[in-house]
Specification:
The protein has 177 residues and is α+β, with helices and mostly antiparallel strands. The protein contains 6 helices and 5 strands; from the N terminus they run ββααβααββαα. α1 packs across α5 (117-137).
Length: 177
């Protein structure tokens, strides 16, 4: 069976050849991304528990530390969450005293989310999380930047593909006469 030789995105070493068997679990990009995401979340969990946050709450807080006031829609876009998932997260952050919700004075239909003083203060403690995660990856800063760039490109391609019309299904049986 033919193999493909390629360079690893993480190191300059050639990656192991891979079999081109489409149904092999090891050849599924989705599984590799899924398993990596689970591993990343496992490393984050104890670090974030010290801050009293879950990973999704942390992502929302990162967005608010970056831009201290956002509409629910803008926040959802920034963190890639729909309102059905985002609104309960914001309610919890509000209950924790880290964020507050208020109607947009310019548009009553819009709700603005902003940080409280406690939410701003939490960012000081959260800085160590990023450093510990960077160490856990065992990647250089340059490797992390390349990996993030590749993953952002992959996400953009997938989102573009998801918006494109699907081709008609291929028939596996012969037409009836």
């Amino acid at each position: 069976m033919p193999t493909a030789t390629r360079k690893s995105a993480i190191s300059n070493k050639p990656a192991l050849p891979r079999r081109l068997d489409g149904l092999s679990l090891d050849n599924q990009l989705c599984f590799t991304l899924y398993a990596t995401s689970l591993a990343m979340t496992k490393v984050y969990r104890p670090l974030l528990s010290r801050l009293g946050l879950t990973y999704p709450q942390y992502v929302v807080m990162l967005a608010l530390w970056e831009t201290p006031e956002l509409s629910v829609g803008a926040l959802g876009e920034r963190v890639a969450l729909d309102s059905g998932t985002l609104v309960p997260l914001v309610r919890k952050l509000t209950a924790l005293g880290l964020a507050e919700r208020r109607r947009n004075p310019a548009d009553d239909r819009s709700v603005l989310i902003s940080l409280t003083p406690a939410g701003r203060q939490l960012s000081r403690n959260a800085r160590a999380v990023n450093e510990q995660i960077a160490c856990a990856t065992q990647c250089t800063d340059a490797q992390i930047q390349v990996l993030m760039s590749d993953l952002k490109s992959l996400r953009a391609a997938l989102l573009s593909s998801a918006r494109a019309p699907s081709p008609p299904p291929r028939s596996t049986s012969s037409p009836r006469k």
